[in-house]
Amino acid sequence: MLHILEKEHGPRYLLDANGVDPFTQRPFSDMMKDAHSRKHxxxxxxxxxxxxxxxxxxxxxxxxxxxxxxYVFEMVISTEGRQIRIKNFQDPINNEHINEISFFLxxxxxDTPLRAEYVGDHEKFLSNNSFRSRIFYQxxxxxxxxxxxQFTPKEIPIINKRRFLSIIxxxxxxxxxxxxxxxxxxxxxxxxxxxxxxxNGKHYI
Length: 205
What we know:
The chain starts with a strand and ends in a 5-residue tail after the last helix. By secondary structure, it is of the alpha+beta class. It folds into 2 domains: about 1-135, no CATH class; about 155-190. The chain is about 35% helix and about 25% strand. The strands form 2 sheets. It has a 6-stranded mixed sheet with strand order 2-1-8-7-3-4.
């Protein structure tokens, strides 16, 4: 069985439903039946690659949309909040750079089950939360996509050389002052003691 994947002003692509999805290793027809049996629409992702700038025709590859999104996108959590970003924009089979990802919908109650409806591209996936939720069957995107935490550690202030030297000098000055105060205090205590000792010992001048 062949499914037609076509978008307006774009080339037509025929998908063999008996073909195997590289991620799940299951035939596309089985995954479509599973989704439709639960009254869910099934989403396909068509990847367009271009090896060189001179290629006349860019190759296409088809994947289960949910599995491909887990491979390509990630959720980044930082001090700025949560954001969906591209993690890896290389085709998983041949490692070629991806030019475009097109998403197609196979409705469970469609009157034309062999024709897939174009519903958006990778840019729409990045910007539209409702679109992402439909692809993941209304489950939380945070539960489906890999999460990347990017919190910048607080910078520890570095004491420059001049400031360090000034601190050392201040410490030395304080130590000297404290030592002098201690010496003067000790001398003040010793003089009355020596005078008292001389009187009791009857040493008079």
